[in-house]
Structures are given as structure tokens and as C-alpha cells.
Design goal:
390 residues, alpha+beta, two-stranded parallel sheet
Length: 390
């Protein structure tokens, strides 16, 4: 079997969406009106902390696909002022968020126990204002949300190999700025973080044989597997990975922006940043290279994402181990593409409706478990009521 990224086709039911005249779609998607529609037509569960579980109307997979969004659309009307990562979420909300994550991942592993049959992943995407609003691919909803996805591996095996030159597949490979010029600095920085449950993967150990991905990204095995996700310690270490990444990214692009810049404000690990980054010649040499190009290349400068942009994943590898990885997301690829899965969404209501009953059955079971754990109350939609199928 040829190893390489796969492109799969995922049918969806077209959404009758009326965008006000003169308003771009991505502008409308950030509105409270659109978020109300998301909850009313696809909402599964919500809680007092503002977390909304919903079916992905434009999903990655019709096998299993849902998201949790931190819905601040009514409390924060400015889309650019909304929390877009866990580090910006109140502790009480984060506690509930982590428990919801643990229960949904546990369900996916229970329903799909064989790593040869299903690719299971859960991940968080950064939705900052990290690149121009006029650029293609600007996030449709500027609020923190997690994805929970299962792909049928039989379908992936028979899917055509994706174009390896697709820019969205190169984020962690040879085209990546971090990997091409600062690989050793990047890895050494992560190695000094205080991690006990997360063990660094050896090169290639975490890669999926089917796709050959992820490529070039730092990865950690979750020691203890799914049981570790019930430990507060794991989620603190998961946050530590993110905080370390944010420090590295912010320090680097601060140096790109301003030569010999001081330590960024609100740095999580100031002593580590000062010792391992601000005094590292390879790190600063690379910042100078990028800065010099920005001065003379307007298009390149416009493509820079000056604020931390990332995607962080928990996924199951071929050996059945749970792995954490994080991408610098310098290009803006989809969360599935970190694992070599390119999703081509196509409007096909009939095909979607054939998969819909089995999908909803699983989503409602997840909702039942979350309600039982006091993590929210069910939402009624045209497709289901508060407790089951309508």
C-alpha cells in the first residue's frame, strides 16, 4: 500500500443561509445572529459556562464529527475580543471544558476500539486575528472551539492520494520556517518544559503509516493512555505545551518585528525564553532573515501571522497509543491535514441523509453522557428534541 496523504469526499446538506446584502460571509459568520442559527439548527447541548456542543453542518467526516465552541457571541460583541485559546478561558470554564473533552474522547475510543479501523482525533484550533481579514481562509467564527472527528480507515485506504504539493500539507514539513531553520532550538526549548505524563516521541514513532503524517512536528505520547485524560495533571501539561509554544512563537515574531526587542509581556516561562531564545544565535539569525525579507517583499510581509497561530491535537496512532502534537500553523491548514487527511466537502443532501441517522445516534449518546455528568442540558432542534430524536 502506498503511503501518502489522502483526499476524501465528505457530502453535506446545503445550508440555506441568508447573508445580508453587502456583508461578506466570514463577517456574518462572526455575528450573534449566525451563532443563534448554529445552536437552533445543530446545537446538541449547552451549559451555564457558555460551552456549546454542536453537530458540524459542514463536517470533516460523516462517521463522527462534532465540536464544542466557547460561545461568547452575546457577551463579547467584538469578534476580535473573544477568547480563542484555552489560556484565555476562566478556570471554572476550563475545568468543564476539559471534562467534556475527556468524555467525548473516551466515547470515540470506546465506539472505535481498533486503530486499524478508525482514525480518532480531537483538537483545538487558534482563531486569532492572525492574518488579514481579506485573505482566503480567514476563520469563519472567531471563538475557541474543539473538533472531535473519526475517519473510517477503510475509506482512507481506498481514497486517492492527495497532491503532495498542496500548501496546506506542508505546514510541518520542509516548507516550515520553524522546522527548516530552528528545528534544534525548537525541540530543545520544549524539552525543558516540566512534563511527566507527556513523553517525547522518537522521530517517526508517532507517524501514521497510511498517510506518512504528521511530518516534522514535536509529538508526545500520553503515558497511561485514555485513563490519563481523567487526571488534572494531564490537562495542565496539555496547557504547558500550548504555553511553551505561545512563548516561542511570540518571542520569535517579536524579534522579527523589532530588532533586539525585550521579552514579550505576559510571557509564561520568562527565564526559559531569556536563556534559550533571546541568547540563541540561530534563533536570532533566523529572525533577522525573516525581518530583512519583510522589508523588501510586501507580499511576504502581508502573509506573516504575527500573533500565535496553532493547532493542537490528541490522536491515536497505529499502535493504539494516544499522541499529542502541536503545529505552528504558519500556513493555516485544516486540523485534519496535520495527519495527512484532505477533506473535499461536496453538497449532496441525499448522500448526507443516508449517513445522518447513524451519526445522530452517536452524537445523542455523547450528549446523554455529558448530561449525566452534569456538564450541560440538551438542546431541541428540528432534528432532535432535548433528550432524543424528534
Amino acid at each position: 500500500m502506498t503511503s501518502g496523504p489522502r483526499e476524501i469526499v465528505t457530502p453535506f446538506r446545503p445550508i440555506p443561509l441568508a447573508v445580508p446584502e453587502g456583508m461578506a460571509q466570514n463577517e456574518f459568520f462572526n455575528s450573534t445572529e449566525n451563532l443563534d442559527d448554529l445552536a437552533h439548527n445543530n446545537g446538541l447541548l449547552q451549559n451555564p459556562e457558555g460551552l456549546l456542543l454542536y453537530r458540524k453542518a459542514l463536517g470533516h467526516s460523516n462517521e463522527f464529527d462534532c465540536s464544542i465552541i466557547y460561545n461568547t457571541s452575546r457577551s463579547i460583541l467584538d469578534p476580535l475580543g473573544r477568547p480563542v485559546r484555552r489560556t484565555q478561558v476562566p478556570d471554572g470554564t476550563k475545568n468543564v471544558w476539559n471534562r467534556m473533552n475527556q468524555i467525548i474522547i473516551e466515547f470515540m475510543l470506546e465506539r472505535y476500539p481498533d486503530p486499524d479501523q478508525a482514525l480518532v482525533l480531537a483538537g483545538e484550533a487558534s482563531l486569532d486575528a492572525t492574518w488579514p481579514l481579506t485573505s482566503p481562509g480567514v476563520p469563519s467564527i472567531r471563538m475557541l472551539h474543539n473538533h472531535f472527528i473519526v475517519f473510517d480507515k477503510a475509506a482512507l485506504r481506498t481514497a486517492p492520494v492527495a497532491d503532495a504539493n498542496n500548501p496546506n500539507l506542508s505546514d510541518g514539513g520542509q516548507h516550515s520556517l520553524f522546522q527548516a531553520y530552528m528545528r534544534d532550538v525548537y525541540r530543545a526549548f520544549f524539552d525543558e518544559l516540566d512534563l511527566q505524563l507527556l513523553k517525547p516521541c522518537e522521530s517517526g514513532d508517532c507517524r501514521l503509516d497510511l498517510t506518512g503524517y504528521p511530518q516534522g512536528l514535536p509529538s508526545w505520547e500520553i503515558q497511561g493512555g485514555a485513563a490519563a485524560l481523567k487526571e488534572v495533571r494531564f490537562w495542565k501539561e496539555y496547557d504547558t505545551i500550548l504555553k511553551g509554544f505561545i512563548d516561542f512563537y511570540r518571542c520569535f515574531f517579536t524579534q522579527v518585528s523589532t530588532r533586539n526587542a525585550p521579552l514579550p509581556r505576559d510571557t509564561y516561562f520568562p527565564e526559559l525564553v531569556e536563556a534559550r531564545l533571546q541568547f540563541n544565535n540561530d534563533f536570532l539569525k533566523t529572525a533577522k532573515m525573516v525581518r530583512d525579507r519583510c522589508i523588501t517583499d510586501a507580499k511576504y510581509a502581508n502573509s506573516i501571522r504575527w500573533q500565535p497561530a496553532f493547532k493542537q491535537l490528541i490522536y491515536r496512532n497505529d499502535a493504539g497509543k494516544l499522541i499529542v502534537t502541536i503545529s505552528q500553523n504558519s500556513i493555516g491548514n485544516a486540523i485534519t491535514e496535520l495527519l495527512g487527511v484532505v477533506v473535499k466537502r461536496t453538497p449532496d443532501a441525499a448522500a448526507y441523509e443516508r449517513a445522518e441517522p447513524a451519526l445522530i445516534e452517536k452524537l445523542l449518546e455523547v450528549r446523554r453522557r455529558l448530561v449525566e455528568a452534569d456538564l450541560g442540558a440538551g438542546i431541541a432542534t428540528p432534528y432532535w428534541n432535548e433528550t432524543g430524536v424528534a
